[in-house]
Design goal:
This protein is an alpha/beta fold. The chain has helices spanning 68-76, 95-106, 129-139, 149-153, 156-170, 182-199, 218-230, 248-254, 266-276, 282-291, 294-299, 323-329; strands at 5-12, 22-27, 30-35, 46-56, 58-63, 79-88, 112-119, 143-147, 173-178, 205-209, 234-238, 258-261, 315-318, 335-338, 341-342. It comes from Gandjariella thermophila.
Amino acid sequence: MSGDLLIRSVRPWPGVPGAPLVDVLCRAGRIARIGADLPPAPGVPEVGGGGGALLPAFVDAHSHAGSADGLARLAAAGTMLARVHVPVDAEARLGPLDAALAARRAHADRLTVQLVAYPARGVLGERSAEDLLDAALDTGADLVGGLDPAGTDRDPVRHLDVVFGLADKHGAGVDLHLRDPGELGAFEIELVCERVAALGMRGRVTLSHCDALGTVDTDRQDRLVDLLAEHDVAVTTVVPGRPADLPLRKLRRAGVRVGLGHGGDPLGGAAELTERNGMRERTLVEMCVDVAGRGGAAALGEHGHGLIEGNAADLVVLPAETVAAAVTERPAATLVVRAGRVLPPPPA
């Protein structure tokens, strides 16, 4: 059956050197069994993992790679889920979205792509912006975005009313670029959470960048983190180029879903995240890798992503002794499995 595979000799999420070797049986595209020396399954192909580290496939939670080449780069790194932000404006209209939809179709066998249509010049700055976003959601965009409601449009209330109104009309999620810092950005977080509560959108809203969290005092930061957790609003951060002080550990402890935009280099992105946050302990390095994988999938609303029996068999095997070693060494994957199928290397 398609999606059946037996992977031999891998170390699932190895935290220390010398972790035990196990086999992984995939059935119908899902992890069916994990254990040592599993018996052969009639009719099921086998593939060797070479003792490598087995990780869930990587996730790019904030990307602008809307072209076929961009998606190919993500897939080549073992990324199997990506959220791609596509600009619309009066000049380009829906051209970038049409290209992204075509690219998504072309790479559907290698990765799942969520498309966010966002207003490249703000919601209020162009008369056609709201109509274009409306049309984009009709055309195939999965989510509607916004762009710095105060910094771009100088009217965060109207900006968010338009974005959330369109989300409510289409039953779509929201992923908002929110780079406004300090108390202004904090106020916008409160406005977002008000709309989440009013429209019953818990678990369907993401704040990308969310620079305000790193530019307010500790007490204000604590209240904002609690507010995000209360309303189940996810946060994504991006490397390179974002501030170093997103309170990653505090967000995770509070139960806020956090994802990473890594630009096609998930291990490099995890490495930069550890360096920016001064994380040297093994468990903290592993947390950053999780943000680039299972945690990132949760931030995008996908909760069956991991190394538990019953999870989707979207997997990566790396020639590394531990997860932390993979971050340091950044090796190319030796095996990439999507829905229980071994993917061939992408074209050169």
